[in-house]
Amino acid sequence: MLKQSISNNALLLAAFALATTFVIAGTYLSTQQQIKSNIRQAQQKALLEIVPDHRHNNSLLDDNKLVNDATLLGLREASRLFIATMDADNVAAIIPATARDGYTGDINLIVGVNVDGSVAGVRVLSHRETPGLGDAIDLKKSDWVLSFNGKSLANTDWRVKKDGGDFDQFTGATITPRAVTNAVKKALQYFAANQAAIFAPAANTTIHTATSEQP
To answer: Where does the signal peptide begin and end (predicted)?
Structure first.
């Protein structure tokens, strides 16, 4: 009787586990498309903040290439860069970058670079910097990140003012703006070294990185 009871209970538990698995799988499949749609909308919003509609007429999310560069871009894994065009003419590239030397860890950002090599815009996507200090890199907290707009390798000293450069640091927090400033500079260097590959025909969907750390 005891063995029979154990067997019955085991079967019930197995049936319950199987039913739960089907429910979870069904829920996941039914919401997967909505999740993808939400992610796409969030990406589109960030890209459009850097290259707004009046500057391009292609689909930014669809015109992309895979890049995996740990030397200049600091990427931990392969990511997508996005290309903006107007009537098939190249306008800008939006390049992913990671500042690995943030005060409390990685700072992930995207850097828009115009065809002339100037910054179209920078947005921090994720970070764990100190609230009230390092988090001023977030546009929601301050407009500091807008100070990169229009800057290029040729016309800018890519250091914070404490180090003799052109960019403000934060009161009580120099490490964070220094890390972001250096990451933006390296994204510009990446663009300069790989511009031909970035804007090559769409069939070339993976960029084989060339590195050039210009001053």
So the answer is: 1-19
pLDDT in tens, 112-160: 999 999 999 999 888 887 777 778 888 888 999 999 999 999 999 999 9
Separation between Cα atoms, residue 160 and residue 194, nearest integer Å = 26
> What pairing do the DSSP bridges indicate for beta strands 107-114 and 119-126?
antiparallel
Q: By the 8 A CB rule, do 8 and 15 touch?
A: no
pTM above 0.85, yes or no: no
Contact 136, 166 (CB under 8 A): no
d(CA 162, CA 172) in angstroms, rounded, equals 12
DSSP per position, 106-129? -EEEEEEEETTS-EEEEEEEE--P
